[in-house]
Design brief:
Layout (H helix, E strand, L loop, with lengths): L2 H30 L2 E8 L2 E8 L3 H20 L7 H7 L5 E2 L2 H16 L9 H7 L11 H8 L8 E3 L2 E3 L12 H15 L4 E6 L2 E5 L2 E8 L2 E12 L2 E6 L4 E4 L2 E4 L14 E8 L2 H14 L1 H10 L3 E6 L3 E4 L7 E3 L5 E2 L1
Parallel strand pairs: 15-17
Antiparallel strand pairs: 1-2, 2-6, 3-5, 4-5, 6-7, 7-10, 8-9, 9-16, 10-13, 11-12, 13-14, 14-15
The structure holds adenosine monophosphate and magnesium ion.
């Protein structure tokens, strides 16, 4: 072969190799900047995903399926044969559940103890009696409430390894932690994929994964709008508020967060509590607990769990814990910061 032909062939080979390398790199670049935005219904609420990275689509699909499975096999008291359904159905006996369900219930019991019972998953019979959010609410009578109140008590729940036992007349309801648990499960699944960053919201609970994001806090007087934002860095956020589910009877408003001491919706000067911390379960449980406990008592509890919070009061003032003062911004003129 002539020397000049050899030279042409080697130049062409170099160009081809370069093209392949550039092709692979840009394919990888395109995939890593892939972004999936999607919204669905699960756990009786809206779940939305914003996931960026190579595996965004696969991660979105798996997390969606996992959250639906989580509700059906573990958390729902309505779905026959779920762990919670079996615990309630087998009240008075040891019921074998998944390791995860046992550990979530264990964590819920810790938060019950630390909140001195303001948070209590054994309100199951009462939440069913009130049935708030069903659209078929009827104001229960005092006697029925007081009878069911006798069976409320987190201290009567026992866990040994992966079996859970509640007292005969009790029923548990994990409605106050389910959405936070879904965020934690989503986080573990994202870790298994090649994901750059993500925001996943499950009802009032939000996971900010591997990024900083500005998260809006709903205006309790108009929940379609935000009244403030907080900067969240790789943490979970959860809001509990009296505007989320409620009904009106005899000119009075009855919301869905019960005071385990009275059996009635918690009486408070709060409209909502938003909690920010590393764990979705903790954020969800603490927001419910703080709503029942009120501002002052909540501060110690939040401290113990290394959590920050935003309290919105019914006189349109807002209190923010020290750790997030700089990242909190009011966006509505109707509120003032205390
Ligand atoms: P959340 O919206 O996270 O505050 O949770 C409220 C839901 O948790 C209610 O719809 C009930 O199913 C349940 N719940 C109500 N009051 C309590 C309470 N004091 N402790 C634990 N769970 C509760
Ligand atoms: Mg909650």
């Amino acid at each position: 072969m002539k020397k000049s032909n050899k030279k042409v062939i080697s130049i062409v080979a170099v160009i081809l190799c370069a093209a392949i390398v550039i092709g692979l790199v840009s394919y990888d670049f395109v995939k890593s900047s892939l972004s999936v935005e999607s919204t669905d219904i699960a756990m009786g609420t809206v779940i939305s995903f914003s996931i960026k990275g190579k595996d965004a689509q696969a991660a979105t699909d798996e997390i969606k399926e996992f959250i639906i499975g989580l509700e059906n096999s573990c958390l729902s008291w309505r779905v026959e044969e779920s762990d919670v359904w079996r615990i309630n159905y087998g009240a008075g006996t040891d019921v074998s559940v998944s390791t995860e369900t046992a550990s979530w219930i264990g964590r819920a019991l810790d938060i019950s103890a630390d909140s001195e019972g303001a948070f209590d998953i054994t309100v199951g019979k009462l939440t069913r009696l009130w049935n708030i959010g069903s659209g078929e609410e009827v104001l229960p009578d005092k006697e029925t409430i007081s009878t069911l109140l006798d069976d409320v008590g987190y201290k009567k729940v026992f866990i040994s390894d992966t079996s859970v036992k509640i007292e005969n007349c009790q029923a548990i309801d994990l409605g106050a932690i389910g959405k936070g648990v879904a965020c934690d499960v989503a986080k573990d699944l994202l870790d298994d994929y090649s994901i750059k960053e993500a925001i996943i919201s499950v009802g009032g609970s939000i996971l900010v994964y591997n990024q900083k994001a500005s998260v809006g806090i709903a205006d309790p007087s108009n929940s379609q709008k935000h009244m403030a934002t907080i900067e969240v860095d790789n943490q979970c956020v959860s809001t509990s508020g009296d505007y989320e589910r409620f009904f009106e009877a005899d000119g009075k408003k009855y919301h869905h967060i019960l005071d385990p001491e009275t059996g009635y919706p918690a009486i408070t000067d709060l409209r909502s509590v938003t909690v920010i911390c590393d764990s979705g379960l903790d954020a969800d449980a603490l927001s419910t607990a703080c709503f029942v406990m009120g501002y002052r008592k909540s501060l110690e509890l939040l401290n113990k769990y290394d959590a920050e919070a935003v309290f919105v009061f019914d006189n349109n003032t807002v209190s923010v814990t020290d750790g997030i003062k700089d990242s909190f911004k009011l966006t509505s003129d109707n509120y003032t910061v205390e």
